[in-house]
Design goal:
A hairpin with a 2-residue loop joins strand 2 and strand 3. The protein is of the alpha+beta class. The chain is 48% helix and 23% strand. Strands 6, 7, 8 and 12 form a four-stranded antiparallel beta sheet that branches. A three-stranded antiparallel beta sheet has the order 3-2-5, covered by helices on one side. Helix 3 crosses helix 5.
């Protein structure tokens, strides 16, 4: 009898411990706790602490609060100009509503990733199909602005810095016919496209990023060759334009130099003529009587004799009536 009583007491104690242990649960700081009763959610907790539940009737599921990463598989998408691109993206997501997450996805991370995969892929497809390949590549990391001008050229401006045309004096040329079209970073466009589609599942996509945005392997060589050809054509056009402008500058400079030289030569000739006229005027004033004229002629004769007795030549022939000969002969 005593033995049976001990067994009964032991069973009661074990049952009581099981009831007590099943009546408490703990919610950690990095998780939600969801309390179910007969499969129906009766309580959710998003703060840490020790709580009480009805044992054997209520069950507790735990949902992580931490940000999770989901790497989407690579996929092919078509741009608006019918170019195929390979896109590899990843998503950062977290649970914001544990009740909705449990009701719609049964608190399953794999099920949530499946829904995220569909939503994000559709957003990528919709976004990229509305952009050309050039716009897509340009807007991968940085917001750009495309300025459409009347001559059908496009100037891509990074970080919203608009390039401005300047005249020869460095003044900005205003062009009212330019139309600016802003292109948003592709990750921002994806977030706008996704919107609040994930709210119904109690999850939030905190970030959507493109890891790889590339061409299919079979198209790379052809595209690279086309790009090289286009860049060479652009370079040739710039070079031709530069050579044309350089030739214009050279022609203008040569013309200006020629005009300047002609003007300088004319001024020099006029100055020489004025100097010679002044020289003749001074000579005329200096020898304006017969005595001065005779002295001038005598000086010229002496200069002539001096030039003739050079290089060892000491013999000269003079007329006996010459004033110089009279000096040498002592005749006054």
């Amino acid at each position: 009898m005593k033995k049976a009583w001990k067994i009964l007491v032991f069973i009661v104690v074990v049952a009581a411990l099981m009831v007590v242990s099943g009546s408490f649960y703990t919610t950690m700081e990095n998780e939600y706790s969801v309390v179910k009763q007969f499969g129906k959610i009766v309580q959710t907790n998003d703060t840490a602490g020790l709580r009480v539940k009805i044992p054997f009737i209520q069950t507790v599921n735990y949902v992580p609060k931490a940000v999770q990463i989901y790497d989407l598989p690579e996929s092919e998408v078509i741009t608006s100009d019918k170019k195929t691109m390979i896109v590899d993206a990843y998503v950062l997501w977290k649970v914001t509503d544990a009740k909705a997450y449990t009701q719609t996805l049964n608190a399953s991370a794999s099920t949530a990733q499946g829904r995220i995969d569909v939503i994000v892929y559709n957003a990528i497809k919709t976004t990229i199909s509305s952009m050309t390949q050039e716009e897509l590549i340009a807007s991968r990391d940085t917001a750009v602005k495309i300025v459409n001008t009347t001559d059908e050229t496009e100037d891509i401006e990074i970080n919203d810095i608009e390039s401005q045309e300047l005249d020869e004096e460095g003044n900005v040329i205003e062009d009212n016919e330019k139309e600016e079209v802003e292109i948003i970073v592709i990750s921002d466009r994806l977030e706008q496209c996704i919107g609040n589609q994930c709210d119904q599942y109690g999850i939030e996509l905190s970030d959507v990023k493109i890891k790889v945005l590339d061409l299919p392997d079979e198209n790379k060589e052809a595209v690279y060759n086309r790009m090289i050809t286009e860049r060479n054509n652009i370079a040739a056009a710039y070079k031709a334009q530069g050579e044309s402008e350089a030739q214009i500058i050279r022609n203008t400079t040569d013309k200006e130099v020629s005009v300047m030289l002609s003007e300088a030569q004319a001024k020099a000739d006029a100055t020489v003529a004025e100097g010679e006229a002044e020289y003749m005027r001074i000579l005329s004033e200096a020898y304006n009587d017969e005595g001065k004229a005779d002295f001038y002629l005598f000086s010229l004769q002496l200069d002539t004799i001096k030039e003739s007795v050079t290089n060892g030549n000491t013999t000269i022939f003079l007329d006996k009536d010459s004033p110089v000969a009279q000096i040498f002969s002592g005749v006054q």
